Amino acid sequence: MKKAVLLFATVFYLGFAHAQEAKKLLDEVSSKVKSYDNIYIDFKWNLTNEKEKVNQETRGDVTIAGNKYVLNMLGSTRMFDGQKLYTIVPEDEEVTISKHNPSDEKEITPSKLLTFYEKGYTYKMDIVQNVKGRKIQYVKLTPIDSKAEIKNILLGIDAQTKHIYRLIQTDDNGTKYTLTVNSFKTNEPLSKTLFTFDQAKYEREGYYINQLN
Asked: Model's pTM, two decimal places?
């Protein structure tokens, strides 16, 4: 009986220690991210679902400054100016404008990509990988909400720079989303109009403006 209690106590302590270690690393990442005026990320994005035989891969880039962002991906641009979201699709010559919905707080948006884990997850240290001489430490995050569609998230963190290198999200339906950072730049000189939507410009170019809400 004493051995069983000792084993349980040891496992509990190791689990607690791993959680504390993971929290310390995530806090360092969050602190580093919040110290930058802006961040530019060039990335590779992959979606797979073995059961459905789906495998999609694309590249994209995003510029983030506070809660504002411009995301270029899959031939379209999504821009958030702090109040409204603009989705620009050149192929369809259409722009959709919608208001920010506070009820979508659980969604991992570009502006929360590097800090979303601060609430709603438990975490523990996972595997370590060597990527071209860089030590990538993974932290496994599990949603506290048992009804969450997300099964778990693996965050790969560069141990030296404290920047996120890879995010792997696995959903309950078996779909896996993988975002791998190709380039991570900070405090770049940005145009003053980068996060400003020029509606008149798109109207002159013949775009259909779809205003929601």
From this structure: 0.84
Instruction: Identify any residues that bridge with 143 across adjacent strands, giving them in sequence order.
Output: 121
Distance CA 80, CA 67 (A): 8
pLDDT tens figures, 3-17: 444 344 333 333 334
Strand intervals (E) in the chain: 39-49, 54-65, 68-73, 76-80, 84-89, 94-99, 121-131, 134-143, 150-158, 164-171, 176-186, 208-211
Q: State residue 20's pLDDT score.
A: 85
* Residue listed under structure tokens 């770049």: 188
Burial of residue 155 (CB within 10 Å: 0-12, 13-18, 19+) is buried
Cα separations in angstroms, 163 against 32, 62, 186? 8, 15, 11
> Which residues have C-beta within 8 Å of that of residue 48, sequence separation ≥ 6?
54, 55, 56, 175, 176, 178
Which stretches of the chain score pLDDT less than 50?
2-17
The confidence score (pLDDT) of residue 61 equals: 95
Q: How far apart are CA 139 and CA 115, in angstroms?
A: 14
What is the pLDDT, as a whole number, of residue 117?
A: 83
Q: What is the pLDDT of residue 3?
A: 42
Pick the CATH number of 2-211 from 2.60.120.10, 2.50.20.10, 3.40.50.2300, 3.40.50.300: 2.50.20.10
